[in-house]
Amino acid sequence: ESDTASEISFQFNKHKKTPSIGSHSSDMASVSSVSGSVLSVYSGDFGSVDAQGTVEFALDYDEKNREFQVHVSQCKDLAVVDEKKGRSDPYVKTYLLPDKARMGKRKTSVKKRTVNPIYNEVLRYKIEKMVLLIQKLNLSVWHNDPLGRNSFLGEIEIDLASWDWSNRKLNWYPLKPRSLSAVNGVDHRGVMNLSIKYVPPGSLGKTCPKNPPSGEVHIWVKDVKDLLQLRPSGVDSFVKCYVLPDTSKKSYQKTRVIKRDTNPVFNHTIVYDGFHTEDLKDACVELTVWDHEKLTNHFLGGIRLGLGTGLSYGISVDWMDSTQEEVAFWQEMMSAANEWIEGLLPLRSL
């Protein structure tokens, strides 16, 4: 039923607490360093002020240097955050959507004690024009708080595919409240279609030649739909799999790379043995999707299958954070031994 299959032995050490249980290995650290930058556009918003005022900026693309430039000039009549002192300390932040993690954010300097800040700064992105045209520019204004409790002051979102690139003049734009589409849709990373199965130790009977002496978890990665399109030609994607808390090469498996496709079909099965029934409460299967490039791979999204308790063998861990959908999927597998459980789960930023 699948074109590739891999089987590895995996033994949990429940008594001796190794460093890999309490902390990430270098392999896991590489995942964390990438996914850690994938935050909500509105992360850090602690304010409750209404958006008001305007922002003046201009857009340009430098063909020679292959650089997208956002010239942020100034803002007027921004909301006052600290009413007692009658002040705001505003700055401007930009993202290219939908993949803000890949291109990152840019921001201006902070102008203190003013609702009419003047910046005259250029925010730059090194990006091919064809790739830029499938992005949206999210430009937002924020009040900077010394303790990091920044307040959202307003935003504007521009579809760059329909932008008039002959317009290089500075223009004024009204700042709007945060858009529901941005809040709910920015982090959409696609969905993974997969099946999982647990085979308990000795459950297939003595007459079965494949009766496992220890339990097995089977993971059948079928396909992924609606991946972020990082290039006009699509993405070159593959899936990594770990069984946490082990992030060593013992538990690491991956699919082949599917090129130039935002809806890749992998049809890849992985079997982990050495799984005792009690391990299912403390282990977590992490599946992550990556865009393959020569120099570095880019994180696209992932899922974590487990009970989401925050604990693994009595130790508090940040990766035991499964969503309700992921927990329900894992629980269904635990309660239906020897049966394939099918699921369609949204990828997230982990």
UniProtKB/TrEMBL annotation:
InterPro entries xrefs: C2_dom (IPR000008), C2_domain_sf (IPR035892), SYTL1-5_C2B (IPR043567)
Domain C2: 51-173, 200-320
Compartments where found: Cell membrane
GO cellular component annotations of the record: exocytic vesicle; plasma membrane
Residues of the signal peptide: none
A single BP term in Gene Ontology: exocytosis
Main localization category: membrane
Keyword check for Zinc: no
UniProt cross-references to SUPFAM superfamilies, sorted A to Z: C2 domain (Calcium/lipid-binding domain, CaLB)
Protein name: Synaptotagmin-like protein 2
Organism per entry: Lophotis ruficrista
